[in-house]
């Protein structure tokens, strides 16, 4: 992997040089990990004209949540407590007589930006923008392999839950059990706070589990994801508690399923982000549910659970191959509940079989 990280930094270095910047200061944790293999708490990465260095407030621990650091990368641990690694990195860049330093202005606080200017007043600070995020969009096969394992772990955890007795248990209890099962199956932890919604809470996006208990006749919506070596997937399913779903539940489920399938089938290289959103959204719009829809019907995943691209009505851009995204339409009817169906897929060309589905738990309307 050292060669991979070095190649990523080299590409960023070339982009900085083309923009007239001698070095880049990376402060966003996911970007630090992408370029160095690890992101110790508070660490920043200086990508210099000749060599690169990771600055840390404390020595890297090597724990799984930090990642595995590129062993070829130089590491500087601040000697004094309370120091700012970003300030130390800017100070080094200035001492090397760099004229300009590209920084992630969208991540820096105003106070930190001022501190950089104070320590290196002659250093011109330029905005790197989202250059690293754009570099992260297309995943290599090793990254996709991590996502595939994360999806397998999430599928296992969800499958085991469905085999247990659910009636009478609280949303909060079920969410905690799912997160424990993720770790039991090899995840570093949950990719995001697990959402479990029952009855009138079902179908709500990012519902925070409450003490409501599962009852016969409920819709049960579960949304969870695993974090494996820093890479995060997402899966969401809706089920019915009991043996005979009501007609309105069957009708609503079939509608959301149709919308989700339309979104999945639109995931091809060259497809506009907004067109993928429209494929799913139009099915629900035409059924009169426009008021109940989320701002987007999907998003990218990787080192963060919600990263570019955004599959939304006003999103600009087109999909590339090897971009992992979610497709997650849903409808929530206030006071009644609703349905969400959420998969993680990788965009693949039709010649390779089309979108690769990573989360494979059945999307049949099961009565539990």
TrEMBL record:
Region Disordered: start-end pairs: 187-213
SUPFAM superfamilies: Creatinase/aminopeptidase, Creatinase/prolidase N-terminal domain
One Pfam family this sequence matches: Creatinase_N
UniProt keyword terms in alphabetical order: Aminopeptidase, Hydrolase, Protease
GO molecular function: aminopeptidase activity
Domain (Peptidase M24) ranges: 146-348
Gene3D superfamilies reported for this sequence: Creatinase/methionine aminopeptidase superfamily, Creatinase/prolidase N-terminal domain
Domain (Creatinase N-terminal) ranges: 8-138
Protein name from the UniProt record: Xaa-Pro aminopeptidase
């Amino acid at each position: 992997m050292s060669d991979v990280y070095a190649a990523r930094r080299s590409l960023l270095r070339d982009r900085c040089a083309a923009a007239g910047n001698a070095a880049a200061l990376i402060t966003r944790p996911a970007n630090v990990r992408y370029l160095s293999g690890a992101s110790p708490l508070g660490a920043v990465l200086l990508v210099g004209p000749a060599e690169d260095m990771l600055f840390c407030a404390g020595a890297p621990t090597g724990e799984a949540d930090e990642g595995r650091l590129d062993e070829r990368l130089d590491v500087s641990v601040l000697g004094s407590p309370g120091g700012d690694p970003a300030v130390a990195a800017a100070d080094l860049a200035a001492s090397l007589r760099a004229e300009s330093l590209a920084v992630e202005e969208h991540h820096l606080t105003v106070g930190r930006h001022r501190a950089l200017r104070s320590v290196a007043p002659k250093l011109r600070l330029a905005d790197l923008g989202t250059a690293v995020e754009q570099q992260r969009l297309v995943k290599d096969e090793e990254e996709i392999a991590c996502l595939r394992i994360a999806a397998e772990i999430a599928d296992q955890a969800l499958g085991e839950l469905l085999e247990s007795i659910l009636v009478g248990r609280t949303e909060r209890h079920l969410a905690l059990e799912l997160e424990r099962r993720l770790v039991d199956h090899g995840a570093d932890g949950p990719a995001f706070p697990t959402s479990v919604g029952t009855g009138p809470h079902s179908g709500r996006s990012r519902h925070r589990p409450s003490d409501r208990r599962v009852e016969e006749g409920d819709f049960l919506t579960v949304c969870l994801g695993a974090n494996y070596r820093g890479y995060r997937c997402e899966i969401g399913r809706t089920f019915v508690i009991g043996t005979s779903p009501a007609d309105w539940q069957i009708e609503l489920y079939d509608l959301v399923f149709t919308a989700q399938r339309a979104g999945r089938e639109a995931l091809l290289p060259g497809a506009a982000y907004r067109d993928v959103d429209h494929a799913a959204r139009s099915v629900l719009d035409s059924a009169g549910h426009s008021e109940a829809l989320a701002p987007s019907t999907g998003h990218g995943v990787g080192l963060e659970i919600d990263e570019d691209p955004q599959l939304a009505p006003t999103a600009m851009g087109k999909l590339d191959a090897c971009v992992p995204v979610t497709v997650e339409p849903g409808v929530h009817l206030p006071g009644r509940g609703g349905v969400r169906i959420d998969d993680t897929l990788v965009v693949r060309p039709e010649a390779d079989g089309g979108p690769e589905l990573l989360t494979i738990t059945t999307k049949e309307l099961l009565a539990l």
